[in-house]
Every structure is written in C-alpha cells, then in structure tokens.
Fold this sequence. Notes:
Elements: E1 2-7, E2 10-13, E3 18-26, E4 34-39, E5 46-51, E6 57-59, E7 67-72, E8 77-82, E9 91-97, H1 103-108, E10 114-115, E11 119-124
Parallel strand pairs: 2-11
Antiparallel strand pairs: 1-3, 3-8, 4-5, 4-9, 5-6, 7-8, 9-10, 9-11
Amino acid sequence: QVQLAESGGGSVQAGGSLRLSCAVSGYGYTSRCVGWIRQAPGKEREGVAQINIDGVTKYADSVKGRFTISQDKAVHTLYLQMNNLKPEDTAMYYCATDQSFCPMHALVLGRVNYWGQGTQVTVSS
C-alpha cells in the first residue's frame, strides 16, 4: 500500500505563492510516477503536474510557467511550488500516484490508485 499526506495549503491574495508538500510512504515510492491533482467546487478533477522516475515533468496548460513540481526521494516527499496564484487556482489539492500510470494520464483513464486527503488552497482577488 501507499499512503500520502498533503500539507501547506492556505489562503493567499492573487499574485502570492504557496508551497505544498506531500509525505509519501509505502511500497515502491522510488519506482513510481507521482503528481498533483486538484478539484474546485462544481468542477471536474484536473491533473496539475507530475514527475516521473527520471525526473521528467508535465504540467497542465493552466499552470505552466507558474507552478513547479519537485521531489526529494531521500525523505519521501513531493512538492508543488505555486507562484503568481490566481483565483481560478482555488481548489482542493491532492497528491496522487498509480501502480501503472503517471497520475495525469491515470486521471484521464478514469483511475488513480492512491490519493491523499487533500489540502485546501484559496486565492482571493
């Protein structure tokens, strides 16, 4: 099993920054592609960013140039640095992984094996 625990969310003004963290435990962390998914009220879940085992990253078009995903495998932690936040970034943010696919692709396929409890990000104008 894999367990994930997000932290670092909060409320900020538009243009501000937040850094989310996700502590990961369980089988095969270093062999998995991990990432971040968000969901705003009344909207579908959206893949935000992911990083594969080789460090190759992928971002949603809506966050490119503003968000950066990274990880420190030595301490089993995933990060999401969010800069120049916009009100439309307001959502619950989840870190996630899947046994077979990177999270953004797994989401498109309708499957994500493991989720955290989420951390709320609220951006005011």
